[in-house]
Amino acid sequence: MRSLLRKDCEIALKEAACLWSLSDLIYLGPTGPNARRLPEWNLYEAYCASPTPPDEELLTMAKHASPAVAGYAFEVLLARNSRLIPEALELLLPRTESVSGSRGSFVSYLELGGYALHRYENWVEKDQAAAP
Description:
It is built from 6 helices and 3 strands, in the order αβααααββα.
């Protein structure tokens, strides 16, 4: 049974890498209730709400050649408040591939390392604001 779950996880990760690598941006969600929802976002949300794939597998995806795959994997780790966020950030900081981040119709263009740092800083600010 355990090997079957592992195989399912591997298939899911390959499918995620395939979908995310076809994307020309890291879609960070719709800006309104009737806004279009991209398949990349739906997969991101599903991974955020599930312990599968494990964070260690997402860390491996952060090494992917596609900046979109690496960026989405990092976004899921952030959403899960993973203990592996610092390690993923360290992997992404030196990367200079161009990546686009989009929330609705708002798009920003950065190098992947700069994108990851910006998203990490937002995550830290949000975490500190939520602290009592």
